[in-house]
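Morning. Coffee machine broken again, so started the prediction first thing and wrote up yesterday's gels while waiting. Chain of 277 residues, entered below exactly as on the submission form.
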Amino acid sequence: MVLKNYKYSLFVRFWIQAYLDFCAATVLGLINFSMNNPSQYTNIALCIGLFTFEILTPILFFMFSYKNLNKIQHKERGFERLWSSFFYEFKNDQGLMSTQYYSIFFVRRLIYILNLTLLIDYSATQVTINSVLSFTTVFYLIKYRPYLEKVQQATNLATEIGIFLFVTIMAGNIFGLASSVQAKFELTMVVVAIAIMAVQMCGSLVIFGQTCYEIIKDGIQKTTGKNAKKLEQVNDPSGQTIHMDRDTEFYHRRITDNMTLVRSETRPTAVEEFILD
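Came back before lunch.
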């Protein structure tokens, strides 16, 4: 039973969050490897294994999404239980490409690390590659609008546009501009970086506020619904049901079973005998 309900979400989310760090560690390990002592053999073998898996990650994800596209789009319960971390944030309603945010996510980070480590002496090429990667993400977010939450969609789009502007402005530093112009470029970069962080923080606060509002709203609705049900229907000791009409101030007694009680056939109570007398 435990295996049946087992979830991979923890490991999937961990790999998504740690992918960039693992890429940086393995690439640096491969570049700076040494065979001076036996312990380095283990290090290089581990780096090769991890780097191979890092390269395969976007490829395997694309193949996995293609094979299970129907399950993704129809939100099959068993499938979502296992792989929801890849797809629960997105609408996945525009074909295969609308499910490929994480393919772009992984490829972008892998190329980014290779760009920083292997092309360190080619600044213009680095800036160009980073600009292309950022623009690709912006284009994807505009074309497919993949996120379910409008706030999350707007926040991520604004963040990616800010990153694209930051990388583009940073290119000004490689052209040997005058110190005054370069100072303005640097100030603009600082402003853009602060704006990116502010957008992310505000987006998180808005989403948090919306979540709290929905929780409170659901709680109030459940409480109100239970109270309304109690007011509308209360069983009395005789087996009858007392229904309260909320449009008036009177209670109306209705017989819930199929029997018709004839008052003349029932024995009057002591109170009724006193009133009749």
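Confidence is low (pLDDT under 50) at residues 242-266, 270-277. Going to sketch it on the whiteboard this afternoon.
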